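Side project, low priority. Logging it here so it doesn't get lost.
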Amino acid sequence: MYQPYPTGGQGPAPQLPGPPRPIQNAVKLMYAGAGVSAISFIIGLTTIGSLKSAIRTADPTLTTTQVNSAVTFSLVIVGFFGLLGIALWIWMAWANRGGKKWARIVATVLFGLNTLGLLSVIARPHAVLSLVLNVLLWLVGLTAIVLIWNKESSAYYQAMSGPRY
């Protein structure tokens, strides 16, 4: 027969609050950021073919092997950073929904890096679609950062980091 171990008169553990509306909206935006990153990743992979002609135009002295090596390198970079971007958006959504204080800081640092990336895209020759997707990702990130740093969100992070009995 099952007999539960006596708890010493303590009631059930207190329920932790659910995320407030700003956090919920920020998490939705982070998932949207992952979606936009996935679209950008797919477009990056589909346009890699035009990269050969761009490389040849930039340096006509390159051999076919050198051009192919440059294209392969670009594919690896696009693949790595594309998948990394998607994973980071999802990770930040999960961690911020859970009220992890460190996640706000990491998300803010990642937004800063995204800002530098956007400036890099603006500063060099780019396709219009690439610029539009980068600006869209930046706006999604900015809105999410504003939402996770507002007063209501700060109270949630504080409550989630407090002692749990």
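Brief comment: Residues 21-159 form one domain.
Revisit when time allows.
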